[in-house]
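Q: My labmate handed me this sequence with no annotations at all. I'd like to see what the chain might look like in three dimensions before we decide whether it's worth expressing. Could you predict it?
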Amino acid sequence: MSVRISSIATQLPPFTRTTEEIIPYLKKWLNGQEDRFQRKVLKLFQGAGVDRRYSIMDVDEVFKKTSFEEKNAVYKRETIKLAENALSEALKQSNLIPTDIDYIITVSCTGIMIPSVDAYLINKLKMKQDIVRLPVTEMGCVAGVSGMIYANNFLRANPNKRAAVIAVESPTSTFQIDEFSMVNIVSAAIFGDGCACAILSSHEAEEGPEIIAEGMYHFYDAEHMMGFELRNSGLQMVLDKTVPEKIAEHFPKIIHPFLAQNQLTIEDVDHLIFHPGGKKIVATIEELFGVLGKNIDYTKAVLKEYGNMSSATVMYVLEKFMKDNPKKGDIGMMLSFGPGFTAQRLLLKW
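A: Here is what I predict for the chain of 350 residues:
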């Protein structure tokens, strides 16, 4: 039984600003803070490797003091729109209609919505009434790959079925207006909003890269490294500064045994489809892969063009590869990191 990714579509929210356009708002927000600290924050934003980011709200609203309830209402309203548009475009690319989907997985961690976004999509698009639903809400940046792993398992057990995996995120909704911690500032500097949808299929006749292997790797005693704390003011980012070095420490155990289980080595991998967590993580992975003669140019391009869109980001990287139409037989490896701390991988074959 083979499972293929038949299409992928991305969807950006309506508001966008370059980093330079955000700087005046940042300076106003920092007014009253110590001069040296202000210079440090501005330098961090300008050196984050992000030229532009998109948001479900305009920059004035991002820097406006509002309640968690108000921010979350915007998150709910706008993520439903983004998810509907991304799913509709992915269906169009695969020449499918909504009732062709048997399994819908939605992933998001940057707001709270019950019922989850998939329930709204089923109603709006009149999808099957017996469609299988799986909302994934607490896996952070890794959830795009997680959702595809869950879809792969479902489809391998069910021939001639299709799954939609939709990742929709608004990290700007989690910005803490009254908090001047470096974690809050780093988060604001590297994150942006976005949505992506992948259609996966176990229909033998459908085309696209085949998923040939999957794997999760969990770090022990690392729950503190990444995630959110729920505060009265909203979801407060948790991001440990040791994440890049922890990834580097575990990297050989994450990559080489996984490939060996599939009779491959890193030399056999043609395309690295890596989630761009941030500039330091990208630099760490680039150094590790660079020694092996590989590049992560598309990962760096996505970070520069959009910022880190949490779970959706790796799917933007995958979209770039799929538009390139890799050669038949090429091997690609998807890799994301997220709260837990966890690394998750997919092997693809074109």
